[in-house]
Amino acid sequence: MGRSLKTPLCERLEIDLPIFSAGMGPIAGPELVAAVSNAGGLGVLGCTTMSPEQVRA
User: Fold this and answer.
1) Using CA atoms, how far apart are residues 8 and 11, in angstroms rounded to an integer?
2) Rg (CA), the chain
3) Element at 1 (helix H, strand E)
4) Which DSSP state fits 2?
């Protein structure tokens, strides 16, 4: 029987997998954030170099 990847942190964050993308500014843009999130992980958007308008989009 395989070991479950579902952890207490996954339950708290309501995600399926304990996978977090790193917010790396323009390198890890919204497309990667969406892909990680859609796959059951937690996508993180690094927005320190983005304007408020870019973050909202």
Assistant:
1) 5
2) 13
3) none
4) P
Question: How would DSSP label each residue in 6-57?
Answer: --HHHHHHT-SSS-B----GGGS-HHHHHHHHHTTSB-----TTS-HHHHH-
pTM of the predicted model as reported, rounded to 2 decimal places: 0.74
Domain ranges of the chain: 8-56
pLDDT, tens digit, 9 for 90 and up, residues 8-57: 999 999 999 899 998 887 788 889 999 999 999 999 999 888 889 988 87
**Amino acid letter, residue 29:** G
Q: Give residue 1's pLDDT band: very low, low, confident or very high (50, 70, 90).
A: low
3 secondary structure, DSSP code? P
